[in-house]
Amino acid sequence: MSALWLKHYMPRSLYVRAALILVLPVVVVLLVVGIAFLQKHLEDVTAQMTRAASREVTLVTDVMEETETQQQALAAVRPDLQALDMKARFLAINEEPAIGRRRWYDFIAPQVEADLRALLPDLTAVALPSGQEARLYLQTDIGVLQLTFDRRRLSPVAPHQLIVTMVFFAVVMTTISFLYMRNQLRPITRLAEAAQAFGRGRVVPYSPGGAIEVRAAGSAFLDMRARIERQMEQRTMMLSGVSHDLRTPLTRLKLGLSMLPEEEAAPLQQDVDEMQLLLDAFLEFSRGAVEGASETVNPKVLLELIVKDARRAGYEAELISVEGEGKAMLRPTAIRRAVENLIGNAVRYGSRADVSLSITPKSLRIRVEDDGPGIPPEQRAEAVKPFSRLDPARNQNQGSGVGLGLAIVSDIARAHGGVVRLGKSESLGGLCADIIIGR
């Protein structure tokens, strides 16, 4: 439970998570090694070198204390300066110490200056502008003395090179690891794309690749996809065959009933008509989600055509709003059947159907609202099941079906990787049916 809060800050992508797992150890190793080296090794070596340099500077200043003028002082320390490989001069009266700018990566310079100030009480300024030269400014009785000597006598040569080398090779190795990781994750990404496309009713070419485990998962997905396609095809063929076989005896029954007196044939004719209606609805349900191939369509244009056809059929339907724009991969025939079913239900149990469309970068929503009695919340889950008839919750005087209208819509939505959500219309007060499909 204590680690659950961390989930909100963790990346969701497998690629980013793998990259994080790869980069974090490298960064931690660099920090640990770098800090440990700087604090334990460089600091100790630098302290020893600055201590030795400060002794040499103290030797020069002690010799100068016995002189009275700057010229005498420089002459007195000339042998020592030659031996110590130093240069010395006194600043003019109005001359300021030339400090200069340090290099941004010279992280050891602050420690050098701090150690020198602690060891040399008369030190007024330290100039460490480059890796080749160091200038110390000391206050003496006869003026400000400038001592110049090699910077390498105060600290190790180019201490930043170790860090630069570590970072460089860390970047190189991390880049190589990223390339290798991308090649390993690419088959997983392809498998996810193929599974997502199949869940939305599209079949994209896919061949297993990658590591043994990924290949096994890919092969299992192909077997599963083939079985599902085979089952869907068999279901459609079976229902189509049953429908075709039943149409012949129904036709003979209608022909026989036409020869009977009207009073005797009327009840039987009603039963035959109901059987015909049930057969047609069952066949429509069997082919509703699989009819047609997926293609890139403009949902707005498709809905405009559906609403126009519904108005020509005498339905009170209208496309009231369209939010967003763009295209989506859909099965136009199946979507048309789903929207037509919703419009048909709306005008059957109400008087009008308001259709709206909302398109976002991630999804599209087709909404159909009516002014009928609606469906109670506790019965909405049951309403989308096949052969579920909720006539007590609807207006039976407007007609009834066989309980497959919303089931067909739900099946088509699932075939597109989406869902159907039922609710109450805020504007009309009746049923609000949403078809939500991911893009």
TrEMBL record:
<dbReference type="InterPro" id="IPR036890">
    <property type="entry name" value="HATPase_C_sf"/>
</dbReference>
<dbReference type="GO" id="GO:0005524">
    <property type="term" value="F:ATP binding"/>
</dbReference>
<dbReference type="InterPro" id="IPR003660">
    <property type="entry name" value="HAMP_dom"/>
</dbReference>
<keyword id="KW-1133">Transmembrane helix</keyword>
<keyword id="KW-0902">Two-component regulatory system</keyword>
<dbReference type="InterPro" id="IPR036097">
    <property type="entry name" value="HisK_dim/P_sf"/>
</dbReference>
<keyword id="KW-0808">Transferase</keyword>
<feature type="transmembrane region" description="Helical">
    <location>
        <begin position="162"/>
        <end position="181"/>
    </location>
</feature>
<keyword id="KW-0418">Kinase</keyword>
<dbReference type="InterPro" id="IPR005467">
    <property type="entry name" value="His_kinase_dom"/>
</dbReference>
<dbReference type="GO" id="GO:0000155">
    <property type="term" value="F:phosphorelay sensor kinase activity"/>
</dbReference>
<keyword id="KW-1003">Cell membrane</keyword>
<feature type="transmembrane region" description="Helical">
    <location>
        <begin position="14"/>
        <end position="38"/>
    </location>
</feature>
<dbReference type="InterPro" id="IPR004358">
    <property type="entry name" value="Sig_transdc_His_kin-like_C"/>
</dbReference>
<dbReference type="GO" id="GO:0005886">
    <property type="term" value="C:plasma membrane"/>
</dbReference>
<feature type="domain" description="Histidine kinase">
    <location>
        <begin position="241"/>
        <end position="439"/>
    </location>
</feature>
<protein>
    <recommendedName>
        <fullName>histidine kinase</fullName>
        <ecNumber>2.7.13.3</ecNumber>
    </recommendedName>
</protein>
<keyword id="KW-0597">Phosphoprotein</keyword>
<keyword id="KW-0472">Membrane</keyword>
<dbReference type="Pfam" id="PF02518">
    <property type="entry name" value="HATPase_c"/>
</dbReference>
<keyword id="KW-0812">Transmembrane</keyword>
<keyword id="KW-0997">Cell inner membrane</keyword>
<dbReference type="InterPro" id="IPR050980">
    <property type="entry name" value="2C_sensor_his_kinase"/>
</dbReference>
<keyword id="KW-0547">Nucleotide-binding</keyword>
<dbReference type="InterPro" id="IPR003661">
    <property type="entry name" value="HisK_dim/P_dom"/>
</dbReference>
<dbReference type="InterPro" id="IPR003594">
    <property type="entry name" value="HATPase_dom"/>
</dbReference>
<keyword id="KW-0067">ATP-binding</keyword>
<feature type="domain" description="HAMP">
    <location>
        <begin position="182"/>
        <end position="233"/>
    </location>
</feature>
<dbReference type="Pfam" id="PF00512">
    <property type="entry name" value="HisKA"/>
</dbReference>
